[in-house]
Q: What sequence folds into this?
């Protein structure tokens, strides 16, 4: 009996000792594997983070690239528009230069003509003088005034060297500044009619507004004031004077 019990205790001890050894072995074997797994997990997490960072950088680069492309496209369109505007400005400048040149040529011709007139100013003699009457406080030509100017224009059509003096006047009603302005408007109406209707060169016409100066009738009556509301048109000619001289010599 004692022998059986002893044997039992020995076997139990061996099993207990063997079980403890097996667990220790398992722990010793599993620990490095777990460590490796943890290391792989950490590395995987790091790789995932790096991938995420890389994706973020790629996205940022792509956005910057898109912005750069858009900016470049916008600059290209702006440059194209600026070039078109520059071409237009250049064309406009050329047109203005041509117009200025033409105006300069015309001014030169007019100046030469004026110099010729001034050089022979003493040869100009008064040939015709008419008056165009105006209603009170008006600067519009009446039918009678137009008829008077038509007759005058017909008389100078055959002349080449002539001057026309247009003098505007008013009556004495109103202040001086207003009357001077009104007299200029009346003179301008006469000049415009002669130039537009009868093609008389503007450089042959000299205009002035004298207001209530030089009244033809100094009376204070209504008829006197009506006579003073006028534009006097005087024609000075060289051709008719020279023609008269030539006829007298014959």
A:
């Amino acid at each position: 009996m004692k022998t059986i019990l002893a044997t039992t205790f020995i076997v139990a001890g061996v099993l207990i000792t063997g079980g403890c050894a097996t667990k220790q072995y398992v722990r010793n074997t599993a620990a490095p594997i777990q460590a490796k797994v943890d290391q792989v997990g950490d590395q995987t997490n790091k790789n995932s983070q790096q991938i995420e960072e890389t994706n973020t950088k790629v996205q940022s680069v792509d956005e910057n690239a898109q912005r750069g492309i858009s900016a470049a496209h916008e600059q290209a369109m702006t440059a194209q528009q600026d070039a078109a505007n520059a071409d237009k400005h250049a064309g406009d400048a050329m047109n203005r230069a041509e117009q200025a040149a033409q105006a300069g040529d015309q001014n030169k011709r007019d100046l030469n003509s004026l110099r010729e007139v001034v050089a022979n100013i003493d040869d100009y003699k008064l040939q015709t003088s008419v008056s165009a009457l105006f209603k009170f406080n008006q600067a519009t030509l009446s039918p009678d005034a137009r008829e008077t100017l038509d007759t005058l224009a017909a008389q100078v059509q055959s002349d080449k060297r002539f001057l026309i003096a247009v003098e505007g006047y008013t009556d004495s009603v109103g202040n001086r500044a207003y009357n001077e302005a009104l007299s200029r408007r009346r003179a301008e109406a006469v000049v415009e009619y002669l130039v537009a209707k009868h093609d008389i060169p503007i450089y042959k016409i000299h205009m002035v507004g004298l207001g209530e100066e030089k009244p033809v009738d100094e009376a204070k009556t209504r008829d006197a004031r009506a006579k003073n509301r006028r534009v006097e048109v005087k024609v000075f000619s060289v051709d008719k004077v020279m023609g008269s001289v030539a006829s007298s010599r014959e």
Notes: The domain at 123-249 is CATH 3.30.1330.60 (60s Ribosomal Protein L30; Chain: A;). The first helix runs from residue 2 to 119. The longest strand covers residues 125-133. Helices lie at 2-119, 143-156, 176-198, 222-228, 239-249.
